[in-house]
């Protein structure tokens, strides 16, 4: 048994945890020696009670290490520990760094320069587009985007990084064979296929639950030099991640949202409490540019090149605000009859320049 295999086994021992492992390593020096230690010697270690010592001493009766190693091989994953060169340096510094990281994909040196982008699972069109745009710009500039593969903002963040042909890391709150949510399986495949990695600290068959997601969140913030909250309600898990980021000494950024939108109350509150307000990627890069391996230009304000439009199409398109705009307001702003505006909006939708939202609201597509 080598050191990595011993760490995999220890990670599967109930109530083990990274803090207890650190205390055990101070005494036994290697994970292999921990697994071979006697119950009485284990119990003497500070913070290791009789129950945990019993579980470690009898680990082979509860942990199917050969089966786990086969599952890892069959899935095409690898496992790294804190002693591995590809283990994120930032992550080693947090209070409870993961004992192991299951990696499906590839980690590179560039992934040491990362920014987390997170937010609510239930998001507005504005929030999703903001996450996608900012993640695109940050990934294009050389930063790896770290997020949680969840619905909403996380999904948009990964998609933005992929669109920029950049790097993105999806840290999930389950084992690799229990990917959640299942509808993001295709997105996980894209990340795995040369654009980053799907990462977990949990053994292969662990199901997601209420405990695994907060544990996952500390990895997202701990991996990154800073964390960007795009849209989050007052009870969003993103706010817990932001608190963890502050405890870990990371910078916290937030995108402002509509003051009456419940999905933005948490992110707006973060700004009130001192998070840096972000309107484009330069607000983050001004802080983090020194961390990038190579300074790159990125398209922040580049206007979209539009196809040739008729006078009516141009007037209707220009009347749509950067946020969701009701059709009545569009009609009033461009001074055209409502029937004409409806017809023009349909043509603009077919040209993929605008999108209709519920309630007869329209937005421009970036």
Task: Report on the architecture of this protein.
With 366 residues, the chain is α/β, with parallel strands linked by helices. It folds into three domains: 1-63, DNA polymerase, domain 1 (Orthogonal Bundle), CATH 1.10.150; 104-291, Rossmann fold; 311-364, Winged helix-like DNA-binding domain superfamily/Winged helix DNA-binding domain (Arc Repressor Mutant, subunit A). 44% of the residues lie in helices and 13% in strands. It contains 18 helices and twelve strands. Helix 16 crosses helix 18. The model has no long low-confidence stretch (mean pLDDT 88).
Topology record:
Layout: H1 3-11, H2 17-28, H3 31-36, H4 39-43, H5 50-57, H6 59-62, H7 65-75, E1 78-81, H8 89-92, E2 100-105, E3 114-118, H9 125-140, E4 144-147, H10 153-163, E5 168-171, H11 185-192, E6 196-200, H12 212-223, E7 226-229, H13 237-247, E8 251-254, H14 265-272, E9 276-277, H15 282-288, H16 311-319, E10 325-326, H17 327-334, H18 338-350, E11 354-357, E12 361-364
Parallel strand pairs: 3-4, 3-7, 4-5, 5-6, 7-8, 8-9
Antiparallel strand pairs: 1-2, 2-6, 10-12, 11-12
Helix pairs in contact: 9-10, 12-13, 16-17, 16-18
The largest pleated sheet is described as: 9 strands, mixed
Helix content: 40-55%
Instruction: Give the amount of beta strand, in percent.
Output: 5-15%
Report the C-alpha radius of gyration, rounded: 24 Å
Mean pLDDT: 88
> Helix tally?
18
Q: List low-confidence stretches.
A: none
Proper CATH architecture of the largest domain: 3-Layer(aba) Sandwich
Shape: elongated
Termini gap: 53 Å
The protein's oligomeric status is single chain
Q: Write down the domain tally.
A: 3
Number of beta-strand segments: 12
CATH C-level label of the largest domain: Alpha Beta
- Under CATH, the topology of the largest domain can be stated as Rossmann fold
SSE class: alpha/beta
Taken in chain order, the helices and strands follow as HHHHHHHEHEEHEHEHEHEHEHEHHEHHEE
Arrangement of strands in the largest sheet: 1-2-6-5-4-3-7-8-9
């Amino acid at each position: 048994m080598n050191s990595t295999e011993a760490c995999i086994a220890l990670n599967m021992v109930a109530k083990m945890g990274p803090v207890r492992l650190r205390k055990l390593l101070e005494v036994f020096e290697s994970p292999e020696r921990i697994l071979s230690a006697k119950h009485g010697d284990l119990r003497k270690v500070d913070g290791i009670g009789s129950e945990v010592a019993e579980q470690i001493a009898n680990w082979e009766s509860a942990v199917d290490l050969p089966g786990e190693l086969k599952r890892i091989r069959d899935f095409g994953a690898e496992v790294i520990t804190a002693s591995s060169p590809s283990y994120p340096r930032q992550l080693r510094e947090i209070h409870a760094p993961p004992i192991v990281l299951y990696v499906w994909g590839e980690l590179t040196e560039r992934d040491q320069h990362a920014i987390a982008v997170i937010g609510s699972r239930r998001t507005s069109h504005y929030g999703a587009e903001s996450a996608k745009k900012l993640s695109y710009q940050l990934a294009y500039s050389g930063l790896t985007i770290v997020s949680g593969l969840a619905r909403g903002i996380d999904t948009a963040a990964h998609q933005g990084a992929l669109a920029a042909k950049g790097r993105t890391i999806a840290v999930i709150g389950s084992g690799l064979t229990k990917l959640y949510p299942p509808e993001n399986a295709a997105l996980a495949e894209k990340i795995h296929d040369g654009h980053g990695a799907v990462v977990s600290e949990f053994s292969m068959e662990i199901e997601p639950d209420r405990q695994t997601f907060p544990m996952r969140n500390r990895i997202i913030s701990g991996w990154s030099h800073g964390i960007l909250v795009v849209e989050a309600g007052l009870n969003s898990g993103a706010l817990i991640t932001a608190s963890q980021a502050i405890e870990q000494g990371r910078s916290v950024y937030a995108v402002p949202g509509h003051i009456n939108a419940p999905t933005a109350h948490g992110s707006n509150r973060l700004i009130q409490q001192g998070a840096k307000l972000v309107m484009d990627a330069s607000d983050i890069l001004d802080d983090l540019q020194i961390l990038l391996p190579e300074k790159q230009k990125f398209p922040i304000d580049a206007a979209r090149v539009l196809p040739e439009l008729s006078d009516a199409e141009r007037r209707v398109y220009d009347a749509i605000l950067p946020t969701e705009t009701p059709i009545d307001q569009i009609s009033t702003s461009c001074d055209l009859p409502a029937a004409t505006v409806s017809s023009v909006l349909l043509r603009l939708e077919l040209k993929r320049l605008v999108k209709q939202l519920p309630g007869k609201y329209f937005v421009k597509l970036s």
